[in-house]
Each structure stands twice: as structure tokens, then as C-alpha cells.
Amino acid sequence: MTEQTADPRPLTGEPLALDLLNTRWVRDGEPADLFAGAFGLTRVEGLALWLRSTGLDGRFRSDAATLVHLLTAREALARAVADPADESARSLVDSVLEHGRIRATLTPEGPGERAEFADPAWGPAWTAARDYLDLLGSAPGRIRTCACETCSLRFHDTSRNGTRRWCSMAACGNRAKASRHYARTRER
């Protein structure tokens, strides 16, 4: 993998927990997975690309153990987002969170926090699970799945009135509008 390898995912830049979920998506009607050894990348290279795209590459290693833990977190988060009332999904997220903790610190700027891990390979997985808790604490109703029936991407709705429906207006939103327009013109 070269430093110039572009992230093939159609939606990036979402909060970390949702960005992790968006490492699985539908491409040309087929499931795609950044960590599946596709796109000319090995599984660990897919992890390295994700760590780089999220800004975690300077803090955590890209290795097989980190990948296994991150896949565990992705599955736990996918289940929790799909059904927040699912007790077993909450238990899976909790089991990821058991591998890290927040330590209060005093910095030159004042109070601070630092994440600590007994095993650093759990760092990205724990960080994503912790981000999910932050999303739930601030705006749980704004964690959304794209309204396009052929899209599986998740996003955090930051629109002023909270009515965003599409992962991207340029992609899924435009397709839906074009489809509705075509249906209206056929009726005439």
C-alpha cells in the first residue's frame, strides 16, 4: 500500500463509531468491506488506511491483533445501532469498553482526560465504542441510516432541523430525486 492509496468508501468523515460501521457498504449492488482484503489492499492495509483516514494512525499500530479487536467492535456497534433495545448488543459494546478507561489528568491548560489500555491493540476498538457513547449522550435520535433502500451507510445528522435522510445528497439523494421525477413523468 502506498501513502497515496485513496479511501474507496463512499462516505467518510462521520463520527468515529459511524465511520467504523461505514467500512462495510454496498458497491454496485454487492457488499464491500474495507477490511476484507479487497481494493488492492490486504486486510491489515485496509486497517492502516482506516486508521490514517480517521487520524488514529499516529496513536495505534496497524496489525492483526488490532484488526481482530476492531472487527469485534464493529460487529458490536452494528448490532447496537440496528437495535438500541437489544440487551445482548449492549453487552457486546460493554465488553469492548472493558478494555480501556479514561484517566483524569491535570494539563498546563487545566483538567484533561487520557485514554488508557492494558493492551494497546484494543485502542481503536475502544475509542470507537467510546465515541458511540458520546453520540448517544448528545443526540441519539440523530444517528441515522441512509434512506436509500440499496444503501447501508450510517451518518450523524447535523442538519439544523434534524431531517437529513441521505448519506449524501450527491449520490443517494440525487438518485432518489431522479427516480421520483422519472416516475412522475411516466405517469403523465
Topology:
Elements: H1 16-21, E1 24-27, E2 30-33, H2 43-54, H3 64-82, H4 87-97, E3 100-107, E4 110-117, H5 123-138, E5 143-145, E6 154-156, H6 169-187
Antiparallel strand pairs: 1-2, 3-4, 5-6
Describe this structure in words.
The protein has helices at 16-21, 43-54, 64-82, 87-97, 123-138, 169-187; strands spanning 24-27, 30-33, 100-107, 110-117, 143-145, 154-156. It is built from six helices and six strands; from the N terminus they run αββαααββαββα. α4 crosses α5 (123-138). β1 and β2 (30-33) form a beta hairpin. 44% of the residues lie in helices and 16% in strands. It is of the alpha+beta class. The protein has a two-stranded antiparallel sheet. The longest helix is centred in the middle third of the chain and has 19 residues, at 64-82.
